[in-house]
Specification:
The structure is a single chain. Helix content is 51%, strand content 9%. The chain is of the alpha/beta class. It folds into 2 domains: 43-315, 3-Layer(aba) Sandwich (Aminopeptidase), CATH 3.40.630; 355-552, no CATH class. Strand 8 and strand 9 (318-320) form a beta hairpin. The longest helix has 23 residues, at 530-552. The two termini are 40 Å apart. The model is unreliable at 556-565 (pLDDT under 50).
Amino acid sequence: MLEPRFYRVGLLPVALALIVVAFSLQEPPRSVRTTLAADAFTGSRAMATLDRLADAFPVRRPGSTADDRLADRIASDLAADGFAVRTTEHSGRTIDGTQDLKLVIGERTGTSSDRLVVVAHRDAAQPGSRAELSGTAALLELARVVGAPRRTTRPITLVSTSGGSGGAAGAIALADELKGQPVGGIIVLGAVAAADLRRPLVVPWSNSVAIAPLQLRRTVETALRAETGLDGGQPRAVSQTARFAVPGTLGEQGPLITAGFPAVLLSGSGEAPPAADAAVSPERMQGMGRATLRAITALDNGPRIKAQTRPDVVIQGKVLPAWAPRLLLGVLLLPPLLALVDAFARARRQRIAVAPWITWTVLAALPFLVGAVLARILGLTGLLTVAPAAPAPIATVPVSIAGLVAVALAGALAAFAVRLPRRRAAAQAGGNPAAPGAAVGALIVLWAVTFAIWVGNPYSAALLIPALHVWLFALMPEYRPPRVWGVAIAAALAVPAVALGAWVAATFGLDPLQLVWTAVLSVAGGLASPLSWVLWCLAAGAVIAGVTIAWRGRAQAGDEHVEITMRGPVSYAGPGSLGGVESALRR
C-alpha cells in the first residue's frame, strides 16, 4: 500500500530548504539611541503621586465607581500639564464580566504625524496593589515632563485604561481608537516600581502569531540598560517558538501588537501583574521611569520604526525571518503528501474503501467539537461571565468546576452518541480498523488538518508534523509494528504537545486543572478563533483514530477481500495456471 520511494523523493526538497534556511539568517536592526539625559523624570515625585492615588483609591475594580473617579482624576492632571484630554466610554469584558469602562486619552501635537503612545492601566483585582498602580504614577510624572511648554517632533499621547487586571479591555478599545493613525511606537507601563524583578522586563508577546518589532524592543532595552544597568531578559529561541505555537500574553501590549501596532510592555514584574502586597522601590521607579523617558526621547528624535510584527526568531544574536520556518515546515509536509497520494491511488485500484474511514476519523472529533461549541455558547450568552477577550491571570478567573463539568459532560454525551455512526462508517469498509483503508483515511485527515494549521500558524503545525511522518509507516499494514510497540509510538508522538503544555503551565503558574480551564476560557472568550479550535478538534479525532488503528495491530489474512480485476502472471488463477492442460501434456 505504501511506496517508500515516493516518500524519499519528497525528502529532496527538504534538504534544499534546510540550505536556504541556513543562509537566511540576518543581522538584527540597531536600536535607536539618544545622548540626552533623562534626569527630568523625578522618581520621588512619582512615588508621592503613587502614595496619594493608592490612599485615595485603595479598591479599583474595573468599571467600579472608584475606577471612574480615578479616571476623572487622571484626566484632570493631564489637562493641567497641557494635554488635550478626551474621555471615551466603551463596553469591555473584564474579570467582573462585561463593564462600562472609561478610556482617558491625553494628546500633545508635534511637527510630524507619527505619534508616540504611552499606556498604563489603573484598575486592580485586589485592594491596594500599589505596585500595579505604579505604572499610572509614572505616566503622570511623564506628563509633567513632556507636557507644555516642551516641544517634541512627534505627537505624544498618554493613555489611561481600565481592564488591564485581566482581559485587556482598555487596550482593545485603544487599538480601535488608533486604527488608521500612524503610530511610531507604543510603550505600555506595568509595575515599573516593583521591588522584586521577574524577567523579561521588556515583554514583546501578543495574542496572535506576531511580536513587537525587534528595533523597538532593542531601543527600550538599551534605554533600560543605560538607566538601570538591568538586562531586559529576552527569551531563547526555543521559548520564542513555543510562544508562537501557543500565542497569548497577560500584558496590555498583546491586543495592540495583534492589531498591527509596534508595542512593548515595560514592567518590573514581567507580563504578569504583581501580587497585591508586592513591595515597591523608589529606586526602581526612578530607573524605569527614566528609561521610559529616554526611550521616548530616542524614538522622538530617531527614524521611524517600521510596524513589522512578523514572528521572527532571534538565534544567537541573528534574526531568522518568519518566512524561513514557514518554508521549512511547509516542505516537510511534501513527503507524506506524495506517499499518501500514491497510497490512495493504490487503494482505489484495489477497490479498498477509504472514504468511510475518513468519515470514521472525522466522527471521532465530534465529542471535542461539541464541548468547544458549548464553551463558546456559554461565553457568548454570558453564562460564563469570567471569559474575557484576552488572557487573564488565573487568580482573577478561578477554575469553575461547574463550567468544566458542563463542557466535559457535553463531550461525553457526544462520544456516546457518535458510537453508532462510527460503527456504521467502519462497517461500510469491512469493519476492521486494522485494514489498509483505515490507515490511509486517518492519515489523509491528519495531513489536511496539519496543512490548514500550517497556513495560519506554522509553529503550531510543527506539533503534528512528527506524528504525520512516523504514523505514515507505523499505521500502514506492511510496516505496522505489533500492538504494544504501535501504542507506545502513538503515546511517544504526544510528547511535543505534552511538553508544550507543561511549558505553558510553568510559564503562567498553572496546575493541570487550571491549564484545562485556561483552554476552555480561550474558546469561550473568543481568543481562539472558531477555525482554530475546529482544526484542533479534528486533529484530536485523527489522533484517536491513529491510536485505535495501532491498538488493533496487524491486519490478519483474509481481513480485506480484494476482488481480482486484472489477469496477469501474479493474479491469474484460471485453467492452466498450474499445468495439466492438453498443451502442456504434449510436452
